[in-house]
Amino acid sequence: MSEPSNTDTSAETTGAAASAGDPDPSSSAGTPRRILITGANRSLGREAARQLIEAGHTVWIGARDAERGEAAAADLGGHFVQIDVTDDASVAAARDTIAAAGGLDVLVNNAGVLGSTDPVAETTADDLREVYETNVFGVVRVSQAFLPLLAESEAPVVVNVSSGMGSLGRTTDPERIESTIVGLPYPSSKAALNMVTSQYAKAYPGMRINAVDPGYTATDFNGHSGPQSVEEGAEIIVRAAQFGPDGPTGAYLDREGTLPW
Ligand SMILES: NC(=O)c1ccc[n+]([C@@H]2O[C@H](COP(=O)([O-])OP(=O)(O)OC[C@H]3O[C@@H](n4cnc5c(N)ncnc54)[C@H](OP(=O)(O)O)[C@@H]3O)[C@@H](O)[C@H]2O)c1
Predict the structure, then answer these.
(1) Quick one: what percent of the chain has pLDDT higher than 90?
(2) What is the number of other CB atoms lying within 10 angstroms of the CB of residue 5?
(3) What does the pLDDT look like over 49-69, one tens digit per residue?
(4) Domains in the chain, start-ordered, CATH in brackets?
(5) Most exposed residue of 76, 109, 206, 247, measured as fewest CB within 10 angstroms of its CB?
(6) Rounded-to-integer distance, Cα 126 and Cα 41, Å
């Protein structure tokens, strides 16, 4: 979670820098891409899918539950693919389905869980393992499976949906709301995801691989307490999904610009 940092809801979701200080997005908006979003049956993933479909892209609605995923795909005009990011066989089958359909240009690792919010003293290693299974190992599992397919794309892109709660800079800044939330599993999982993202970006210099923070957004994830709408929260996901070959990579971005790691 992170504090909403931009009240300009008119900012473009599909292209040029939305505000001064943004990195050059070198957008590929306008070029149809083949996109997979994990956890796209509801909330931020679903809204990102909606916006990307509206922008003319082919979007795979990744969901672990077939009924929920098929319903969302039918509503949005996307293509359902079953994918549980904690399950090797499910991820391999999703990769095979998408490969057989022609390939993939953009992977959005959006699926994430909050996990235990118990006080630190009561938090166990198993509590962390459960959250890491989705937020960290899930991203590595899906990336490992899809990177060879992405490598066949002319302009491969990976968007890892992180959080301001994974930022050491923000969680130690007394001016920021992120510093008021104290817990082990979720913040540390997103910090690990940030490092995973940075290392993947260095390992694959030909790809645009970034971590994004949607900002504190009203979804099921937080009992709809976030002040941002899903339209606002999905904005940076949608923008980073449309980065072109000259766009940033190895960056940590929200809709205002760059976050401190
Ligand atoms: N909301 C915020 O304020 C906020 C702020 C910063 C970052 N984020 C990040 O944004 C991402 C989306 O958050 P959200 O608010 O949209 O959360 P959400 O409302 O809880 O939705 C999470 C989505 O992830 C899916 N999912 C969970 N585990 C999965 C698994 N093992 N395999 C496949 N899909 C799985 C869920 O599927 P089911 O429907 O089957 O459960 C659901 O579609 C997360 O990574 C979260 O950490 C959110």
Answers:
(1) 89
(2) 16
(3) 999 999 999 999 999 999 999
(4) 34-253 (3.40.50.720)
(5) 206
(6) 27
Ligand 1 pocket, 85 CB below 6 A? yes
From CA 191, how far away is CA 171, in angstroms rounded?
A: 11
Q: Where are the beta strands (DSSP E) in the chain?
A: 34-37, 58-63, 79-82, 106-109, 157-161, 208-212, 252-253
d(C-alpha 187, C-alpha 1), whole Å: 9
CA 115 to centroid of ligand 1, rounded, Å = 11
Ligand 1 atom with least separation from CA of 111: 24
Phi, psi values for residue 82, rounded to 5°:
-75, 130
Residue pair 38/85 in contact by the 8 Å Cβ criterion: yes
217, 255 contact by CB (below 8 A): no
Q: Tell the residue number behind the tokens 């694959």, with chain if given.
A: 204
CB 242 within 8 A of CB 48: no
- Closest residue by CA, ligand 1 atom 4: 1
Cα 165 to the center of its chain, rounded Å: 14
The type of residue at 138 is G
Distance CA 85, CA 83 (A): 6
Nearest-5° angle of CA 129, CA 131, CA 132? 60
Which residue type occupies 3?
Answer: E
pLDDT tens for 129-154 read 999 999 999 999 999 999 999 999 99
